Automatic annotation (TrEMBL):
This protein's name: Large ribosomal subunit protein uL29c
CDD domains: Ribosomal_L29_HIP
Family statement drawn from the similarity comment of this UniProt entry: Belongs to the universal ribosomal protein uL29 family.
Lineage: Eukaryota, Viridiplantae, Chlorophyta, Mamiellophyceae, Mamiellales
UniProt GO BP: translation
GO molecular function, one term: structural constituent of ribosome
This protein's UniProt keywords: Ribonucleoprotein, Ribosomal protein
One Pfam family it belongs to: Ribosomal_L29
The organism's place on the tree of life at top rank: Eukaryota
Organism: Ostreococcus tauri (Marine green alga)
UniProt key word Ribonucleoprotein: yes
InterPro entries xrefs: Ribosomal_protein_uL29, Ribosomal_uL29, Ribosomal_uL29_sf
GO cellular component, one term: cytosolic large ribosomal subunit
């Protein structure tokens, strides 16, 4: 379940002082195990561009939005439970969601869908999936 890597092992400062007794001179070592699954999921997060999503289908865009919103939810949970997280991942994911919605709306405009119909479609998608 947990993997121990060389990067995860940290040796705290060596506590050495003038020995007044025999037990006073000792080294303190702290070993921390990190979960690889959580690290792998967020390590691939890089800033994106709208050009990256232009060739995706509408279904793939919606799947990517759901995936990003799930990750945002998991990040908020990590934040609230005071686990380790990187705050810049929030910005990356929010930007990615906005870019995906922009590409989707551009396609709707090209098809002639007005804003009212677009909002109605978005509401129907939201009912079908809790992360939208």
């Amino acid at each position: 379940m947990f993997a121990l890597s060389v990067a995860a092992v940290r040796v705290d400062a060596l506590k050495v002082s003038a020995p007044t007794t025999r037990t006073q001179k000792r080294a303190s070592v702290v070993v921390r195990a990190e979960a690889d699954a959580a690290a792998d999921e967020y390590s691939a997060l890089k800033p994106t561009s709208v050009k990256d999503f232009k060739d995706m289908s509408n279904e793939a865009i919606i799947e990517e939005v759901v995936k990003c919103k799930k990750m945002l939810f998991q990040l908020r949970m990590r934040q609230s439970t005071r686990k380790e997280y990187k705050p810049h991942h929030f910005g990356i994911l929010k930007t990615k969601v906005a870019q995906l919605y922009t590409v989707k709306r551009e396609r709707e405009i090209a098809e002639g869908v007005n804003m009212r119909d677009s909002r109605e479609l978005k509401r129907k998608d939201r009912v079908a999936n809790i992360y939208l």
